[in-house]
Amino acid sequence: MQAHFEKRYAFSPGETKLMATEELRKNFLISKIFEADQINLTLTHYDRYIAGGAMPVNETLQLSNPDYLKASYFLERREMGIINVGAKGTVTVDGKTYELQFKEALYIGRGSKEVSFSSADKNSPAKFYINSAPAHRAYPTKKVSKQEAEVVELGSLETANHRVINKLLVNSVLPTCQLQMGMTELKSGSVWNTMPVHTHDRRMEVYFYFEVPEGQSVCHFMGETQETRHIWMQNEQAVISPEWSIHSGAGTSNYTFIWGMAGENLDYGDMDHCAINDIK
């Protein structure tokens, strides 16, 4: 097994608006999430959030403890959320095994010492998308299926944003410290997500785009509402969104994305909206 860890520094709006294409991609795009028999994790200094993936194929993958956490073990002072975007697999937490089917989620509370990942079939591996945030207390580890999620349907085909929001790891479903995760599925014929746009100064986000059809792409919009930028993204890539930035996208086809966020509040509706005609 191999493990790859990297970290990204935080940038202000003033610095970001001066970045060219490659600088934006280098600092905000997480291009490689899944590799066979590898765990890839990226830490951003926005709320010290971690995003990445584990793809066990021929072996069970053990969650190791990178030096930059300065901890005795990975979840000593952290919580973790996992959503399986591949075939059936299992996550074992301190000896207890949780089976995750496609699009099922698992919350792991602070203080869990040993975490491992495996696939039921190496010819059809699981893909565990991982998010983690600092935690001030321990909450129970719990699996959440799509049937247990809080589901909201928004938008319309006429405005190309008909979508279903599955709130999986949120405080209306189970207790967490600050980590929240969910999954938005766009209906056929719709391409826009998070439109009208918004920001929220009290929490940052990471978007992970998947189920992007072969040959198609998603254009992710970021930056201040009056100073936007864009990053073209491919299937199974993630992008970091600072607290001050919008986070919206439009694809050349419909797609699905996972949103994960952390900050000082758990109020999903705490947003500063911007009218569509006011975006620049």
From TrEMBL:
One Pfam family in the UniProt entry: KduI
A GO molecular function held by the record: zinc ion binding
Cross-referenced SUPFAM superfamilies: RmlC-like cupins (SSF51182)
Chain positions recorded as Zn(2+) binding sites: 198, 200, 205, 247
InterPro entries per record: KduI, KduI/IolB_isomerase, KduI_N, RmlC-like_jellyroll, RmlC_Cupin_sf
EC number in record: 5.3.1.17
Manner of cofactor binding, per the entry note: Binds 1 zinc ion per subunit.
The organism's place on the tree of life at top rank: Bacteria
Cofactor: Zn(2+)
Enzymatic reactions: 5-dehydro-4-deoxy-D-glucuronate = 3-deoxy-D-glycero-2,5-hexodiulosonate
Pathway: Glycan metabolism; pectin degradation; 2-dehydro-3-deoxy-D-gluconate from pectin: step 4/5
Protein's UniProt keywords contain Isomerase: yes
Enzyme class at the top of the EC tree: isomerase
PANTHER family from the UniProt entry: 4-DEOXY-L-THREO-5-HEXOSULOSE-URONATE KETOL-ISOMERASE
Protein family according to the UniProt entry: Belongs to the KduI family.
Listed name of the protein: 4-deoxy-L-threo-5-hexosulose-uronate ketol-isomerase
Organism: Albibacterium bauzanense
